[in-house]
Amino acid sequence: MAQFMTPEKSSLIKNITHFTPNVNDYHPVIIRLEEISKVYGQGDTVVHALNNINLTIEKSEYCAIMGASGSGKSTLMNMIGCLDSPTSGRYYLDKIDVSGLSETELATVRNQKIGFVFQQFHLLPQMTALENVILPMVYAGISPSERRDRATEALERVGLGHRINNKPNQLSGGQQQRVAVARAIVNQPVLLLADEPTGALDSQTTQEILDLFTELNQSGMTVVVVTHEAEVARNSGRIIWFRDGQVIYSHLSPDELHSVI
Ligand SMILES: Nc1ncnc2c1ncn2[C@@H]1O[C@H](COP(=O)(O)OP(=O)(O)OP(=O)(O)O)[C@@H](O)[C@H]1O
Q: ipTM score of the complex?
């Protein structure tokens, strides 16, 4: 990734504290949360949205985060995605201690390390599929000629090589989510982080997106999906179950899910 960084971004990353890696580790830890808490409000209105979370996710794992409404899933997703900072605790993403980073540094880490997929796709309507996928590479400082090649390749990978010049309103919901996945993977992130990625899709299209996640995971991508849907969680290899801001089960298998819901 370093060759794609602008000099400013490269120096930012150099200043970030690194977690000491275990060189013999075949499954490097991509996400390590140590005693992470997130507290909103104070006094009578205090909410412990995350309460002393310890969690690790290794490279090439495919995890689903589940739990009742209000259990802390979105707060955790924001934390893992470097969109919010914890009240206390440490978070290491790909061995970088991100807990104490500034907004600018967090934005750089997000751009380089994480691909996001959201329920509502969040594509820019005036841009073509290709231009939408090119966008994160502009922020990453990649040369214009390389941007086009890589965006085309990413769209081909999600099965949309024939629709690269279509705008979002000329594509189905499933196709728009595929564009969003192409945009998420184009900077070769260490983590694909999806928040209710099939919430706006019908069951057939849901399966297509789940198959795409499986394929990406089988090629080595670490995938974390926040979901309410058992069907989506069962597609993963490991389910993390939340209740009241705490991890109740950290390693449920898809077969064990029926005993919890
Ligand atoms: N900005 C905020 N200010 C105050 N309380 C908040 C804030 N954001 C979340 N909370 C509270 O933190 C707790 C966890 O919320 P969170 O949104 O993480 O849950 P969730 O599991 O994602 O819920 P849902 O499935 O309904 O999206 C809830 O009690 C919520 O009301």
A: 0.97
